[in-house]
Write a structure and sequence with these properties.
29% of the residues lie in helices and 36% in strands. The protein is of the alpha+beta class and 78 residues long. The chain has one domain.
Length: 78
């Protein structure tokens, strides 16, 4: 993730996460007109940081999908 700030990383990956959740939600809800909104996002640090051990830095989005009088929530990790 280089020299980008946590906020920049979260913003740069948000549209892909929303699109992923929306596609899944439209299928699960059987509703091609469903819409999505980000409910929360988080930048997750490695469990064991250090110079010799490199963990994965991830971003997590909770996305609500609603349409056709139904709604559901998805957690997307990038």
């Amino acid at each position: 993730m280089g020299c980008a700030t946590q906020t920049q990383v979260l913003q740069s990956r948000q549209s892909g996460a929303v699109e992923t959740a929306l596609e899944r939600g439209r299928f699960d809800l059987d509703c091609p007109t469903a819409t999505a909104v980000v409910l929360s996002s988080d930048y997750i640090q490695p469990a064991i940081p250090g110079p010799w051990v490199g963990g994965l830095q991830r971003v997590e989005y909770t996305v609500g999908v609603e349409g056709c009088e139904k709604r559901t929530t998805y957690v997307v990790l990038c």
